Structures are given as C-alpha cells and as structure tokens.
Amino acid sequence: MSIYIKSANFEDCREICNMQKSAFDDILTRYRDYDTNPACETVEVIQNKFRQPFTKYYFIMNDDEKIGAVRIVEIDDNTRRISPLFILPQFQNCGYAQLAVKCIEETYKYISHFTLDTIKQEKKLCYLYEKLGYSKTGREEQLHDNMTIVFYEKNMKNSQL
Asked: Within a domain: residue 160?
C-alpha cells in the first residue's frame, strides 16, 4: 500500500464531481444540507473552483487507484485550507484519510498553518483531525438544528506530528 496525492487536471473535474457525490452522499442523506454539502456541487461549480488561481485539486491515490480527492486553497503565503477532503465509501475506515492528510502536510511542508472544518456531530471526523494535531479554533457555525460546522487549525511550527 502506497498512499500519495497526485495533481488533478481540469479534464478531471467530472470525475472529481462524481467521486465527491459518492463520498458525501451518506452525510447528505443524514443532514439534508443541500446548500453546503459537496455532494450537491455540479461539475460547473468544481470547474469554476479549479480555475481559481489559489485552488489546487489532487487525487488521493493508493498505488495506482484513485481512492479520494482533496482541494487545497491558498489563503495567504503561510496558510492553506483543506476543503474538501474525501475518501470514497468503499475505502473509508481504513486509515487512508489520516495518511492523505500527512501527504498533504508533507507536500506543503513549507506552509506553517493549515485550516479545515468539519461537522461537529461527526465524532469520527473530529477525532481524526484532533488525532492529527488539529485544534478547534473556537469558531462554530450552526447550519441547521442538527448540524454545526466546527473549525480547526494546525500550526506546523509547533507540531510534533
């Protein structure tokens, strides 16, 4: 098993869209968040994001197989936002997301600060990011009665991971 990230091309937007729909469908079904859930993004939305000069998409690879994808957004010279990161359902719960985050951090080892957000009610996701050294910023946004977004950050200069 060899987990790594591979740059995606504009021509990959439809594949990323299909993968994203598959990966986030379960969360969409649970929370019915049709406004912000990545499963609701169209190919055109992903293409528009891909065109942004501060955005980069990667496939998460296991050997030669695409098992997920991630979008990295440049906030400033020292900060990158991970949004979204996803693993296809058939590869979830195998530790791949953890390895993917480590690959991202290694690829961007010159970056001192990462940010991301996730659903507070998804304890498994919160645990994953906290285990990787991400800390809650204290900022939360309640999107629905049963769904709150919690924000995380990681200062790589202070990180021992």
From this structure: no
157 DSSP assignment: T
In whole angstroms, give the CA distance from residue 29 to residue 138.
Answer: 27
Rounded to two decimals, the pTM is 0.95
Q: What is the CATH number of the domain that holds 112?
A: 3.40.630.30
The total number of structural domains that make up the chain:
1
Q: Which residue has 């590869």 as its token pair?
A: 91
> Which residues have C-beta within 8 Å of that of residue 133, sequence separation ≥ 6?
154, 159, 160, 161
How do residues 74-94 score in pLDDT, each as one tens digit? 999 999 999 999 999 999 999
String of DSSP letters for 23-47: HHHHHHHHH--TTT-GGG--HHHHH
Q: Is residue 161 part of a domain?
A: no
